[in-house]
Fold this sequence. Notes:
By secondary structure, the protein is an alpha/beta fold. It is 34% helix and 18% strand. The protein starts with a helix and ends in a 5-residue tail after the last helix. Residues 113, 128-129, 160, 189-190 line the site of zinc ion (ZN).
Amino acid sequence: xxxxxxxxxxxxxxxxxxxxxxxxxxxxxxxxxxxxxxxxxxxxxxxxxxxxxxxxxxxxxxxxxxxxxxxxxxxxxxxxxxxxxxxxxxxxxxxxxxxxxxxxxxxxxxxxxxxxxxxxxxxxxxxxxxxxxxxxxxxxxxxxxxxxxxxxxxxxxxxxxxxxxxxxxxxxxxxxxxxxxxxxxxxxxxxxxxxxxxxxxxxxxxxxxxxxxxxxxxxxxxxxxxxxxxxxxxxxxxxxxxxxxxxxxxxxxxxxxxxxxxxxxxxxxxxxxxxxxxxxxxxxxxxxxxxxxxxxxxxxxxxxxxxxxxxxxxxxxxxxxxxxxxxxxxxxxxxxxxxxxxxxxxxxxxxxxxxxxxx
Length: 359
Ligand SMILES: [Zn+2]
């Protein structure tokens, strides 16, 4: 089903390219194609920056590259430096923030972390989380100069992989008035690569999020549900809610990424993620196995949707934080998939910011 959809979308994309090349007029900018160009420049070591391990000069290089892109489109970029502790050592990073004007002062925050893991040989952080950053850049480029229904802040977080530090620092910097004005936060983390596109809400059990003030916590699913509905309006792959698994009702996620700090402030959040919750992975149906593709398994058993031998399996269909999280490998294993999913994510964010439908 999914592969058929993908093949169809690719054919449509190719047909679109031919039309554009035969057209004497300037081609309409395609946000999805631009997003893939940005992803290549950010995550390919051969063609751009490559891996951006948290706390390294490459992380700073990525921040500067993002800021240059945004400045080039006419945005005022705010740099928010912050520090955090790692094993007793003070570390430094920064968030980058731009504001898109809205008819209303009410705020929507859209975020993605730009750092990547560095421990795993070969990972270039293409899907985790070059893809989220690339989609947000394409959104910024597409919506420049436009006035949206609500004021939008695009926030590029540093130091996620070391403890979600950028999002924590940004959330802590918001005034009570800003928090009160914020209608939604959308987190983009690993929005391409895995088999199925999901949108999650925060968890209905506040205990999952370890908030400093649990009384403020919001798990309102309205942002998730709006994104889900918008993805079903055609011209893109529909997103899904993950099925329930032990400890996690359908469509609800844990506190392990940048959305968590915002849910703790009482802001309704949504989290876009490409993975596969139908696989019985190392710890069950938890979404940590991203794909059924046999190339990502020592041995995959399609009848049980699990490893042939659960004792000896070492790969478990995982992409993030592995040697497979790089565009050259992903293109080899899943031709055209990252382009399509990145285009879907970008399209969905643009639709949402133009028609938030939240009040
Ligand atoms: Zn991530």
